[in-house]
């Protein structure tokens, strides 16, 4: 018997993670990627407060690829982030570090 899509989702759902990142806008803008620099410039200009400190946050997703905690996501999700937090299906939360980024394929490996 061929498993249904629902069976596959139920089996794999615990491997899907929510990724939340933050970027302290007081960071040196010259060190940011051009996409994030443009985004941050626009946000700060719209508020008219370029000298104030702001925390820019974003969210994305990824999936666990090994039992020892390696996670694959998109590089644009975690690019230029100061802080990366992983939220698991069961409500567990962990800090993550970037292991590697491949901008060409838009992939990132976290642990």
Features:
alpha+beta; 7-stranded antiparallel sheet; single chain; about 110 residues
Question: Can you describe this structure?
Answer:
There is one protein chain. By secondary structure, the chain is an alpha+beta fold. Helices cover 23% and strands 35% of the residues. The protein has 3 helices and 7 strands, in the order αβαββαββββ. The protein has helices at 5-12, 34-47, 75-78, and strands spanning 16-24, 55-64, 71-73, 83-87, 93-95, 98-102, 107-110. It has a 7-stranded antiparallel β-sheet. The longest helix is centred in the middle third of the chain and has 14 residues, at 34-47.
How do the helices and strands line up, and which of them pair or pack?
Blueprint: H1 5-12, E1 16-24, H2 34-47, E2 55-64, E3 71-73, H3 75-78, E4 83-87, E5 93-95, E6 98-102, E7 107-110
Antiparallel strand pairs: 1-2, 1-4, 2-3, 3-7, 4-5, 6-7
């Amino acid at each position: 018997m061929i498993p249904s899509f629902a069976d596959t989702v139920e089996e794999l759902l615990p491997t899907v993670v929510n990724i939340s990142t933050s970027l302290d806008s007081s960071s040196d803008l010259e060190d940011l990627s051009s996409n994030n620099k443009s985004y941050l410039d626009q946000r700060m200009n719209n508020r008219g407060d370029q000298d104030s400190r702001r925390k820019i946050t974003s969210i994305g997703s990824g999936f666990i690829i090994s039992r020892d905690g390696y996670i694959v996501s998109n590089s644009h999700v975690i690019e230029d982030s100061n802080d990366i937090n992983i939220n698991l299906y069961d409500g567990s939360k962990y800090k993550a570090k970037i292991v590697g980024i491949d901008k060409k394929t838009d992939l990132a490996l976290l642990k």
